[in-house]
Amino acid sequence: MLKDRLSGYMEIFHSGEQYAATSRELERAMGVNGATLRRQVNSLRRDGIPIASDDTGYYYAETELEVRRTIAHMKHRISGISAAIRGLEKALERFDIAQTRLPLDGGDEL
């Protein structure tokens, strides 16, 4: 199973922040694309496997601090995504004003 292979590979070759691997390195090693790699990392994390990451890449966390830094980084990303969603929701107001809405049943009776 890919997830098990990735976990084992990370634990053996990329344990600790100093041994982080870029996404591209892991994609090549596992023979997958970026989207598949991200899904597998997410799945491992959901299973409680301490796959950490920072600006240098992914690594198997060796310390509590490495896990905590990854959590902080992920929370920061969440707040950025939330702000972008709020901005897009505000942008929807333009469409509400600029568009005439037609009823789903085909029109109003006059």
What does this structure look like?
The protein has 110 residues and is mainly α. It has a single domain (2-95), classed as Winged helix-like DNA-binding domain superfamily/Winged helix DNA-binding domain (Arc Repressor Mutant, subunit A, Orthogonal Bundle), CATH 1.10.10. It is built from four helices and two strands. It has helices spanning 2-13, 23-30, 34-46, 64-98; strands at 51-54, 57-60. Helix 1 crosses helix 3 (34-46). The mean pLDDT is 92.
Layout of helices and strands:
Blueprint: H1 2-13, H2 23-30, H3 34-46, E1 51-54, E2 57-60, H4 64-98
Antiparallel strand pairs: 1-2
Helix pairs in contact: 1-3
Please tell me how large the radius of gyration is.
21 Å
Quick one: overall form? elongated
CATH homologous superfamily placement = Winged helix-like DNA-binding domain superfamily/Winged helix DNA-binding domain
Biggest pleated-sheet summary? 2 strands, antiparallel
Q: List the uncertain runs.
A: none
Task: Give the total of domains.
Answer: 1
Instruction: Kindly identify the CATH topology.
Output: Arc Repressor Mutant, subunit A
Order of helices and strands: HHHEEH
Give, in spatial order, the strands making up the sheet with the most strands: 1-2
The span between the termini is 63 Å
How confident is the prediction overall: mean pLDDT? 92
CATH class: Mainly Alpha
- The number of helical segments is 4
CATH architecture: Orthogonal Bundle
